[in-house]
Amino acid sequence: MSWRRLRTLVVREVRATLRDPFTMTILITVPLVALVLFGFVLATDVKHLALGVHDASGTAASRRLIADLGASGTFDPRPYATRAALERALVAGTISAALVIPPDFDRDLNGGEPPQVQVIYDGGEAPLAGNAEAFIRSLLARSGASLAPRVAPPVAPPAAAPPGGVEVVTRALFNPRLEGKPFMVAGTFGFVLSFLTTIITAVSIVNERLTGTFDQLQVTPATSGEILLGKLLPLGAVFALDVVLMMLVAGFVLGVWPQGNALLFIAISSGYVFFSLALGLYFSATSSTAAEAVQKTVLFSIPLVQLSGFAFPTRNMPFVFRWLAEAFPATHYIRVSRAIYLRAAGPEALAWELTVLALSGVVFVALALRTIGART
Asked: What is the pLDDT of residues 174-206, one digit of tens each?
């Protein structure tokens, strides 16, 4: 590795990028526009969600309530012996929502008082929590209406009690107001840094080969590692700047700031950018034309958008697709992004996701080095 040659290659790439105003416009404006647009988009589907249940009552009425929730097809109840175990499962992502039935549920129901049950959500997935809350309220009201006449004579419910004789008290973790913007903003970072970085670099070597400039690099003493770094470092710096700009726009325009360490988020995002750029160079080096490179990127990005959890929570997907989503580095980066933005997670809580990202990055860089080395 010659630092002098590397510096020359970096300067060359910087000048080439600055001479192309269209590319610079794409690099700066597309991430910001995508952030603002996706910040107002919210879409999800509620079906067969894992619902953790702590039944402290253990009576026929409480079991009937749980059975009614499971019969709808919207939720799949899972029993938990303690409330602590229930909340641990919710934070770990094993369940999507939690229901706590208190010990005095049956007594209040027999006494004519509207019994309270508590529903707990992971507010970090606001679309999922919002839709799940609406379904749970509706199902509990309907089930409570069928329970109340059997157990107690009809009484006039208090004015503040919801219909059906069961009062629901909800609490959301991490995102109490269930706002959709933090969910989408954190996911947009993954979409932009996965798709845009790859497609920008996918055409670089192809275009240089067509214009003959890549052939000039072949006769220089530059190694494949120097060529790789010379192409990645300038674009990586631009996208690292994009991350900072997106954070500022999300904060000042959308009112969404990271709850965790912003510097940690920037550092992780910069590393992820480097790996995504390496994947784009691999697509470029293995393509004969720019159109072929773009097609490879688009084909790679379609499942990326659909399965990474960017817009649709992976917990709602069929089992096979959930496992397939784990193969995408974007899935793990989006989890990291949302964990820092919504849960204020630190490096310890993100250890597994960061390990997967690091291993994926090593594979991408090795592929790019090997392919560029073969071409040179």
From this structure: 766 556 678 888 888 988 888 888 887 777 767
DSSP letters of 131-158? HHHHHHHHHHHHHHHHHHHHHS---PPP
Q: Give exposure, 226-265, as e/b (b: 16+ Cβ within 10 Å).
A: bbbbbbbbbbbebbbebbeebbebbeeebebebbbebebb
List, in sequence order, every residue forming a beta bridge with 186; answer none if it has no partner: none
The phi and psi torsions of 116 (rounded to 5 degrees) equal: -100, 140
Residue 92 CA neighbour count, 13 Å, CB half? 9
What global pTM score does this model have?
0.65
What tens digit of pLDDT does each residue of 217-248 get?
666 777 778 878 888 888 888 889 999 999 99
Confirm if 320 and 176 have CB atoms less than 8 A apart.
Answer: no
Residues whose CB falls within 8 Å of the CB of residue 201, separated by 6 or more in sequence, listed in order: 231, 232, 235, 277, 280, 281, 283, 284
Per DSSP, the three-state class of 80 is coil
Q: Which amino acid, one-letter code, is at 28?
A: I
Tokens, residue 204: 């670089």
The C-alpha R_g of the chain, in whole angstroms, comes to 26
